[in-house]
Amino acid sequence: MCYNQGMKQRVLSGVKPSGKLHIGNYLGAVQNFLKLQEEYDSYFAIVDLHSLTEKFDPKAKSQEILGLAIDFLALGLDPAKSTIFIQSHVPEHLELSWIFSCLTPVAELERMTQYKDFVARGHSPNAGLFAYPILQAADILIYKPKAVPIGEDQLQHLELTNDIARWFNNRFGQTFEKVKPLLTNTPRVMSLLDPAKKMSKSLGERHVIYLNDEPDVIEKKLARAVTDAGKDGAMSEGTANLFKLLEIFGDKESFEFYKEQHSSGIIRYVELKANLAKLIAHYFAEYRQRRKELEKKPEYVREVLEIGQQKAQMTASPTLQEVKQKIGLIL
């Protein structure tokens, strides 16, 4: 069984260490992690191996990994409530991934829409990117979770994960249960300067609001955000993006006030942007302070990750041993 009776159900999720977190990353993943750790036996992985499929600076990679761990802790993930670990520090992931790759038809990988989308956006079509869903399946199944929190764009990958589990069970005997999706309704935050595109650090510094941006930086970035004329009642993509952020980080009264001003054609975007900047800066003020404190304690952060690795391996190792026994690798 993936959990014992009377214990919390297990979930797993991961984030790639590929630079600083922005508000889209927070709303799309980490904010949900804070709720999950209260309700589930939660495993949160820094999936560093997945980040190697993209162009990266090897000199910066270790700092990106440590930086993401600091972000997790500064945002409120609690090592006493959840297991926080680095993917590559639990080698069982890779060994199970290879076993799964020997069961997975190439045609199944070829139909993955995310691979096609990534290549279309300019990513190198390397073998790691192609086999990404198999490693993802191993990441999940090695912990035998009940569910995984995902957005709709990841449903195809989870379907393949469950297919791999079924193929393994049919050939070697019942081992893995079907993993259910915990669909998360995450707001789609768009670029400040090009609101037709999703907020992404790859677009450039001025397109995103990083979680550790100081208040004056947030104010300057929002001041440049594109809007509409605010006169004909229609709302452009850029304006809609600002209103979405106002709804998330502000209160209902402010949201309704500016919405009415927009409808009346008397909205002052300078005022809206300045107030929104203050709201976002205040929301992440405690995080920024905690992050600065944790940056001075790298040994503590490494200790958290080491304990997380040990806890993760206590779950992953028996699963791998069971798999190896069933496929005949244990003498």
Describe the structure.
There is one protein chain. The protein contains 14 helices and five strands. The relative contact order is 0.13. With 331 residues, it is mainly α. The radius of gyration is 22 Å and the shape is globular. β4, α8 (155-172) and β5 (180-183) form a beta-alpha-beta unit. Mean pLDDT is 92; it is low at 1-6.
Number of helices: 14
Q: How many DSSP-defined strands?
A: 5
What's the pLDDT, averaged over the residues? 92
End-to-end CA span: 25 Å
How is the biggest beta sheet arranged? 3 strands, parallel
Q: β content, as a range? A: 5-15%
**Biggest β-sheet: strands ordered side by side in the sheet:** 1-2-3
What overall geometry do the principal axes of the alpha carbons give?
globular
- Rounded to an integer in angstroms, the radius of gyration calculated over CA atoms is 22 Å
- Coarse structural class: mainly alpha
Low-confidence stretches: 1-6
The proportion of residues forming helix, as a percent range, comes to 55-70%
What letter string, H or E per element, gives the SSE order? EHEHHEHHHHEHEHHHHHH
What is the secondary structure topology, with strand pairs?
Blueprint lengths: L9 E6 L7 H17 L1 E6 L1 H4 L6 H18 L6 E5 L5 H10 L4 H5 L2 H8 L6 H15 L5 E4 L4 H18 L7 E4 L31 H9 L13 H13 L2 H13 L4 H15 L1 H11 L2 H30 L4
Parallel strand pairs: 1-2, 2-3, 4-5
Helix pairs in contact: 3-13, 3-14, 4-7, 4-14, 7-8, 9-12, 10-12
